[in-house]
Amino acid sequence: MSVTSRSGSPPTTGTPAGTPAAPAPRRRRAGGRFGAALSPPWLFAAPALLVYALVVLYPSIAGVVYAFTDWSGIGGDMSFVGLANFRTMLGDDQALGSIGNTVLLTIAIVVVQNGVGLLLALGAHARIKSRTVLRVVFFAPVVVSPVMIAFLWKYIYNPDPHAGLNGLLGFFGLPGHDWLGDPSLALWSIAGMVVWQNAGYSMVIFLAGLEGVPVELHEAAMIDGAGTVQRFRFVTWPLLAPALTINLMLSTIGGLKLFDQVFAATNGGPGYATETLSTVLYKQAFVYGKFGYSTAVALVLALFVAAVSFVQIYYLRSREVAQ
Amino acid sequence: MNHLRYGRATFLLELVMIAVAVAFMFPVYALITLSLKNPAQIAEAPLSPPAPPTLDNFAKAWSSAALGPSLMNSTIITVASLVALIALGSFAAYFLARVQTRLGYGLYILFLLGIVLPFQLGTIPLYQLINNLGLIGSPAGMILFYTGVQLPFTVFLYTGFIRALPREYASAAQIDGASHLTAFTRVVFPLLRPITGTVLILNAVFIWNDFFTPLLYLGGSGFETVPVSIFAFVGQYVSDYGLVFAGLVLGALPIVVIFLVLQRYVIKGFSSGLKG
Fold this sequence. Notes:
The structure holds 2 protein chains of 2 kinds. Chain A is mostly helical. In chain A, about 65% of the residues lie in helices and about 0% in strands. In chain A, helix 4 (about 95-125) packs antiparallel against helix 5 and helix 8 (about 185-210) runs antiparallel to helix 11. The longest helix of chain A has about 35 residues, at about 95-125. Chain A is globular, with a radius of gyration of 24 Å. Chain B folds into 2 domains: about 10-55, no CATH class; about 60-275, MetI-like (MetI-like fold). Chain B is built from 15 helices and no strands. Chain B is globular, with a radius of gyration of 24 Å. At the A-B interface, helix 1, helix 2, helix 4, helix 5 and helix 6 of A face helix 1, helix 2, helix 5, helix 6 and helix 7 of B.
């Protein structure tokens, strides 16, 4: 996703829009004569389970196994090498650097995207006349392919002083930069284009949260003499916790898995400056033919995603409950 | 009070937000301006409005990027995957939402696992599997891939929704002699319309825009989807920005138009879908 990849969405619970929040009454308990008779047959789930097992479960399990082999591609020999792939990674500047880059990129995206998304949501939630148009404008990039967004931004980041962002900065008398060519800037430039594309996604999730804040609470706080800042801090912010959970999960997992934008804009360069775990595992497999090593890199990525998911669910859920 | 009444503070906020939106749209302005210029005009003054505008880039981009066939491929793959996802996902979810055994609950958790699991872990074994099935370079392989990869999320959305529906509708039909199959397709499935809309929108946007897997499976096959064709096209004409941008405009246009027409539903789907 790209952050829009739904494969990385969090398992949150709640009620579907437009249905009553109360659980359905269950008069017939499990094991009751009607309860058992009325539960649909296993056959209903069988086709889905079959496809899911074939496309997701089997390949993921095989991936874990291959991470401990020296498999060199389809038709190639394969033998178990224990932890050798992971030891190689510790001495591999490209792979090691990609872990650091992935973490930095993810932190930058999570912080800026959610900060910008929250500000946009607060602005578009107010009683301004352009609110509907603004929502459409800020959300529109979310539906466009990340590869195409990356090609557009490759021009925006053009080093030519008269083109793209440099041209705009020059118009205001500001100096330009080689946004994607300067190794110390390139990673942040990638983060910038990701934030531009996905800030509207964070915005609409925060907006849904804001719409759930009862007006009565704001009125009560105002009667008690609370100012705008205080009302945000003590009324709005605590009630935004579920929206914040979803946004942090989505942007973190999207950031960790980022591939399309990097592949299209810099392909990991200059040098290894923008290499991420996803670009490294792609190159190791499909450029160098080191399939075993590539799955080891994929396993590291999977462990990152799993660890972050569990920590976020645990920490943010407890915060929701506490408030 | 600015929350309730259009006062001076609201007006100032409105101006600030519009200014932010204008700045936000600068890349879109560059995209459209450059797509309407020839190389000489771009070299002279890249960011000024095109004078006179030319549509030559669009005609050339349409044929060079093979956008006609790609749009067809993307449409076939997206529509077929959506049909399979809705059929398999809703049936499975109906079982998972109603079954009351431990095994049934375990199966639901197994499906949820697929939401957290990054698909990259299985990339290579899956490539090998699709290759063994003879489906590399075929739209059928992509449809199988999207159905499997998006099922966990689809099952999750449907199960949450069905759990909140009263059982009595289906029970009543079954007491009247309907089978499980008839009760589901005739009575329950029509009640799932709101969540089916969400499933449709979220999966459609993901599948239409996906790049990594179609690049691996379809690159050079003649069945490329729009993002893969655009990738190859840009690689070929990388320095001709007017032409490249015309290609980007044409490639993004279908989904942007659909978004503008259905914007209320799309935004609602994205903001509510994740809450199940």
